Amino acid sequence: MEDESASQTADFAALYDAIYASRDDAGFWLSVAAGAGGPLLELGCGTGRVLVPLARAGRDVSGLDVSFAMLARCRAKLDREPPKVRERVELVEADMTSFDLGRRFAAITCPFGGFQQLRTVEQQLACLDRCRSHLLPGGTLVLDLPNPDPAPAAFARDDPAGGAAAGGEATAVTVDWSGGRRIRWWVTVTGYERAQQWNECALTFEVIEPGGATQRFTETISLRYIFRYELEHLLVRAGFRVVALYGDYDRAAFADGSPAMIAVAAPAER
Questions:
Q1: Residue 22: what pLDDT?
Q2: pLDDT digit string (tens) for 70-92?
Q3: CB burial string 252-261: b at 16+ within 10 A, e below
Q4: pLDDT level of residue 9 (50, 70, 90 thresholds)
Q5: Under a CB-based contact definition with an 8 Å cutoff, are residues 194 and 166 in contact?
Q6: Domain at 149-224, CATH from 1.10.490, 2.20.25, 2.40.160, 1.10.10
Q7: Could you give the CA distance from residue 252 to residue 248 in angstroms, rounded to a whole number?
Q8: Domain 13-147+227-267 has CATH 3.40.50.12280
Q9: C-alpha dist (Å) from residue 215 to 6, 72, 160, 168, 205
Q10: Of 70, 66, 62, nearest to 41 (Cα)?
């Protein structure tokens, strides 16, 4: 039996944790932290999927997110960690376009396409300005974005089927969850605005209980797509210089078929 009326009570933070638990980017962010040699700031830290392993590895890290629910789940994870791990972490509920933490960092990171949630150039530049103001001399900024496909059918590299045309559904993926439950999930592109470079998408989860009962939850998201030279121009306009551009978490050079577009930037000399 399917009950869609429960969609208003979904714990999306827990659902995100379950479907993205197997992402293979942790090693990359640990290497970024090791190379920074100082405190880190993670924008869009969410439930701590990247942040908690960094703290376990001995890194001092501040996590910033606009979502109270995401940060609450992150705090719950940290509560289960040893005191030395918890002491390395600061969590801040704030918007990445307008934060002021009163301190600077050796590296600022924005993993997993978080920068895509900024839909206007003004928001993008505001975020980059805040980043530049919060970096120590010699510090680095690392932005992790998908390598976008300009075709309307494309969504993002984390859509299991590689995207669905507007109004269509991508192939669903099923993952195991706690208590013998499973999550079947997919992304539907509900709208594509070519002139604005963003997709309106519905992220749908079906939670399947051990006995077969199913609940469906849907959350809508809007993501802006950023192309290589657009990103480089944004960074230069905000006072950065591009140090490296990778196409994947193995630091392969960015190329046409790269799944990712990972920019490493440093403040330019004034």
A1: 84
A2: 999 999 999 999 999 999 999 99
A3: eebeeebebb
A4: low
A5: no
A6: 2.20.25
A7: 6
A8: no
A9: 7, 23, 21, 21, 8
A10: 62
Contact 176, 182 (CB under 8 A): yes
Q: pLDDT tens for residues 209-262? A: 999 999 999 999 999 999 999 999 999 999 999 999 999 999 999 999 999 999
Tell whether the model's pLDDT for residue 114 goes beyond 90: yes
Tokens of 50: 């990247």
Residue entry with tokens 């960094």? 54
**Distance (Å, rounded) from C-alpha 222 to C-alpha 119?**
8
Q: What is the pLDDT of residues 141-183, one digit of tens each?
A: 999 999 987 665 454 434 443 444 444 456 899 999 999 999 9
Mention every residue, 6+ apart, whose C-beta is less than 8 A from residue 196. 119, 224
**55 near 23, Cβ under 8 Å?**
no
| For the chain, domain boundaries | 13-147+227-267, 149-224
Beta-strand runs (E) in 59-104:
61-65, 89-93
Q: Are 42 and 51 in contact (CB under 8 A)?
A: yes
SS (H, E, C) 97-150: CCCCCCCCEEEEEECCCHHHHCCCHHHHHHHHHHHHHCEEEEEEEEEEEECCCC
How high does pLDDT run on average in the chain? 89
- Dihedral sign of CA atoms 45, 142, 28, 224 in order: positive
